[in-house]
Amino acid sequence: MAKPGKHQLTKREQSPKNRRDFLRKSILTTISAVLGADIVHAATMPDGYVPVVLSQEPDAMKGKNPEMIIRSDRPWNVEARPHQLDDAVTPFEHIFIRNNGLIPEDIDASNWTLTISGESVQQEKTYRLSDLKNNFKPYTYRLVLECGGNGRAGFYPPTAGNQWEEGAVFCSEWTGVRLKDLLQDVGIKPDAEYIGYYGVDRHLNGDASKPVISRGVPISKAMQDETLLAWSLNGQDIPLAHGFPLRMVCGGWPASTSGKWINKLVVRNKEHDGEKMTGDSYRMPKYPVAPGDMVPDEDMAIIESMPVKSLITFPKSGAMFDRSKKLAIRGHAWAGEFEVAQVQVSVDFGASWKTCALKKPANRLAWQQWSTDLMFSQPGYYEIWAKATDSQGISQPMVIPGWNPKGYLNNACHRIAVKVR
Amino acid sequence: MKEKDKNPKTNKPLSNPNTQQLFKGLLVGVAGLVAVLMILLAAVMFFAFYDGSVEPGTAVASDSSIESKLNNEPFNGEVVDGKDVATGLVVGDGFELVRTTCTGCHSSAIILQNRFTREGWKAKIVWMQETQGLWDLGENEPAILDYLATHYSPEPPKGRRVPLRDIQWYELKN
Predict the structure, then answer these.
(1) I need a surface site. Which of A117, A127, A293, B85 has the fewest CB within 10 A?
(2) What is the pLDDT of residues A179-214, one digit of tens each?
(3) Do A314 and A298 have their domain in common?
(4) Considering CB atoms only, which of A23, A51, A417 is closest to B72?
(5) Number of independent structural domains in chain A
């Protein structure tokens, strides 16, 4: 949708200030000066946030494009609009943010360590960040990270969580050490089944003993060439909101498997049971269910590969042009663990489809660029729908796919509106 | 002249015991002034941050661990289109309770962007109690649920794809 939704959180407009507001802000400025603390959004700060501001987290919107949609500001959850994702390699300013807790502060990268432990390591081992950078061969991959709940807003009845539309996905370039090289260096036992991560983000309720999120992947995914412990995004240090100084990156799987601010990995001899691994978190029913059905936890299975999907990134929805124009449209397509085999577009709601040019991925698990030209013989209102098909022959549905209790995996076709004169 | 007869700051000789007496008096006076200023500053801070508008029955419990998790900032009364400007929450029965109880830990946007029935909201409260450290809401729970179910309940079904809406038309240049 081109315009901010009605439930979207937008930047607060400056309200007329009374004396008390002025007084309060002056005092805050003084406090800020005295403590040397960086007050988040000091200029537009909602009054209700004043007392907690001194313990507030870093400003996640710093360096982000102001057109990004803020779904929540505590914790920070921010998504891109489809046209902002036009680049083959997503720049920092357009990368979505999905946080479960508060962004950690005062990270000391020079003293950062990663400990690898758990019942299935030969012996616990701790590496400094510099050890990872200097003692292992670095690799760089473009990897699609998509929130498991991307598209949740399309489900009915509504499901709990961030009401993402299309933009909780990106494909950027990560550099780091292969997790498999690291595990080989540590030495793992034959019974190793799962990897779990721990990071240093802080719980919303201030309870420091409570892990915010601790997910992971099976050993088979951990051992893939493209599964990294990365310290660099698009050739720079990873931005703080995206996991500085160290992030586990598992392309093609729900982005929650790519843990941020990582200081500990555990090698488990069973499915990892950390925070948000169990219950109904990041899980789908094992069988199709009716909209609104209750599904017992034991009938829910962990999401692994994400489904086939595509975006139209040019033009932005709402384009108006003359009938004489040849419209060049383009976008990306991706398919979790698989490759995309075909992308088609329709301007008649799926009655007929046109096959698009499609590039090979830069590497496995990177999104692929598609493009085509369209001519319109008759003026009027059109919707352009895009549909990708993966190497297994599975396509995106045009309608919203099967409802599920947590609103995951909505990979319905993306569409834009255009007007031809 | 002995050291102790000099003014410690200017190092000038102090003329006589009377002057010394005066100096001591001045010191006490200045200290007193500073103390008065501190009290005044505290009072100003108090009035700036406290509107005195806590409704009776708003406090959930006296337990200090709960107290610290509440949003203790008083409601500033700024309301536009029936919504509290600071949080975006609809101002109505139960608003103050919801604002105080819920937005200490998380953004009000978490509430605003979701839609559930009363049972659905109850399930979210139970989930927060089981996994996120939310306390027993006691007699406040029905009031909170009433508020949420009244203002943030599911809208009519959307079908499997609704018409595109809010399209911002623009001239395509190239």
Answers:
(1) A293
(2) 999 999 999 999 999 999 999 999 998 888 889 999
(3) no
(4) A51
(5) 3
DSSP type of residue A36: T
Q: How many interface pairs between A and B have CB atoms less than 8 angstroms apart? A: 137
Closest among A219, A125, A220, A235 to A176, alpha carbons compared: A235
Report residue B54 as tokens: 């806590």
Summarised one tens digit per residue, pLDDT across range B72-95 is: 888 888 999 999 999 999 999 999
The overall average pLDDT reported for chain A is 89
Q: What is the CATH number of the domain that holds A407?
A: 2.60.40.650
End-to-end CA distance of chain A: 22
CA closest to B51 among chain A residues: A20
CA distance B59 to chain A (A): 17
Q: Residues A248, A204: one domain? A: yes
Q: Where are the alpha helices (DSSP H) in A39-178?
A: 129-135
Range of the structural domain that residue A331 is part of: 309-420
Among B53, B90, B106, B164, most A C-beta atoms within 10 A, so best to mutate, is: B164
CB within 8 Å: A317 and B167: yes
ipTM associated with this complex = 0.70
Structure tokens at A212: 């915010």
